Amino acid sequence: MVRQGPAPDTLGAMRRLLPFLLILSACGGGEPGPAAPEVGAIETVCSASACVDHPAGWEVEVGETFLAFRHPIDPERIVASVGAVDMATLVETVGGEWPAPPRDAIVAFWELIGGGEDASLDGIETRSDGAIRSEGVLEGLRMWHLLVPGFGRSGVGVEVRAPNGSWEAHADVFLGSLRGR
């Protein structure tokens, strides 16, 4: 006698486990890493060249030419930074010619980070003020970036990295407030 399908005992066990598997799959499958807390109070910090708002609770380091942020929930993976961007160097490093539109600098930036292998650009948006917002994944972390072009080859950039998309509201605070001094 040849049987097809699982044995009757196995089928009964599978039927009993099915509701639990469905519950586990509904609860699991979320994005990796800690979820972002709600954005509460907003604080402002400035370096010599730029100011940016950030949600309260982020640890801040102020340098002469940069701002660095870490979130205490996961300070190695939930980070942000603000600093100068040399758009010409970005474009020329990937074989382009300067002068070029700021959008080309962002495309070059995403090509260069992660050695071009650990990064994927998911979208670029040019804002009405000329700033370029982009987002994607770098080394398994969600990343948001904003470039505010200055004069000539210079600009100011802010980036926020976190383990999952729940941190986008935090990124929006950083990216929505960057301004030169």
In brief:
The chain contains four helices and ten strands; from the N terminus they run αβββββααββββαβ. By secondary structure, the protein is an alpha+beta fold.
Describe the structure.
This protein has 181 residues and is of the alpha+beta class. The chain contains 4 helices and 10 strands; from the N terminus they run αβββββααββββαβ. The chain has a 7-stranded antiparallel sheet with strand order 3-4-5-9-8-7-6, with helices on both faces. Strands 1-2-10 form a 3-stranded antiparallel sheet. α2 crosses α3. It is globular. The relative contact order is 0.17. About 14% of the residues have low confidence.
Compressed to H and E, one letter per element, the order equals HEEEEEHHEEEEHE
The pLDDT mean sits at: 86
Distance between the termini: 84 Å
Q: Tally of extended strands?
A: 10
Q: Which stretches are low in confidence, meaning pLDDT under 50 for 5 or more residues running?
A: 5-29
Strand order, largest beta sheet: 3-4-5-9-8-7-6
Total number of helical segments? Answer: 4
